[in-house]
Description:
By secondary structure, the chain is of the alpha+beta class. Helix content is 30%, strand content 28%. The chain is elongated and about 45 Å long.
Amino acid sequence: xxxxxxxxxxxxxxxLVTMTTPACPLSETVVEEATARIRDSVGGDPAIDIQIVWxxxxxxxxxxxxxxSQLGWQ
Length: 74
């Protein structure tokens, strides 16, 4: 999961994410885990909305230099 945006207030957290591929078989599990981790981090009972979006489509060009270096791409 790649995070595109986070909008958080005291009673809600909205997160826009994408996957590296639309065919990712773990997308539902990843969203459930992220929701649980957010709830653990912020406490209380905020509304948590994690939306998977496909625009802009992720490409390896979006990776940081450090990430590319770890994969030996630089």
